[in-house]
Structure formats: structure tokens, C-alpha cells
Amino acid sequence: MGHPHGNPSLKGLLAKIVVILVNVWVGMPYALLVVNGVLMNLPEDQYEAARVDGANALQIFRKITLPQIIFVMTPNLIQSFISNINSFTVIYLLTGGTPFNSNYYNAGETDLLVTWLYKLTVEVGDYNLASTVGIITFICCAVFSLITYSRSAAFKREEDFQ
Fold first, then answer.
1. What is the CATH number of domain 8-161?
2. What burial letters (b/e) apply to 12-29, b meaning 16+ CB within 10 Å?
3. Residue 43: cis peptide before it, omega within 30 degrees of 0
4. pTM for the full predicted model
């Protein structure tokens, strides 16, 4: 006989897919506006010179457009990554972290660290574990951000922005 409330792994998979779709739906307009702003401000003379030299569209994208987008967008990409790690409202309001997963300590299938921290403090009262997880999450995000940014062209050529 099956599980009384349906297949729990299927519910978890569907919940994760819905959360991802909602996050994309919420974040895509902002990302597209930023990328559109970057693309509109790329220097046209480089494109003209590449076309005169016989570059095709793929070469122009790989050698001119993509490096300049990455140069400008690296800080924004880091910020987007960190905000997705801390995406509390979508998870909490959409699924509440459910369905529950007994393999993890009071965490559900769709919980992120931030929603799990909320559950640990508000619902369970395990402040020791919550503070440890919060500090480790902060350290990991800070180290990732510093390493990624310091290796980027935006950091190495910061004087171009002054």
C-alpha cells in the first residue's frame, strides 16, 4: 500500500520545481533590466571595427559582448547569488519548507538555510544550532563573495570606473 498522502518524494520534487519557477519569475525582470542597461551602454565602435575585420556574430559575442557584460555584471551576479541563498519570503510564504523531510533536523524538502534557521529559532527553540548555522552561512557567503570578486576583472580594473 502507498503513502496515505501520495508519494513524498514526488511532492518534494514538485515543490522544488514550483519554488524555482517562482524565483525565476520574480527575479527575471530585474536581471533583464540590468543586462539591457549594460548592453545599451556598450561602445558601438568596437562592434563596427569587428564587423569591418570580418568577425561573425558568435565571434563578436564571445570576444566583445560577453567579456564586457561579465566585467560589469560580476558584482551583480554575486549579489544575486547571495540573495538567492537568503530567499526567505518565497520559500516561507509559498511552501513553508514543506513537505517535511525526516532525514533532516526539522527541515523540509524546500527549506533553505534561512528558512531552516527561522524554524530552529521560532518553532523549535534550538538557538545554539541556529546561531552556529547562521555564522557558518555568513562566513561561507563572505568568503565566496570575496574570492569571486577579487578574481574578477571588475576588481582588477577598478580604476576604469573612476
1. 1.10.3720.10
2. beebeeebeebbeeeeee
3. no
4. 0.70
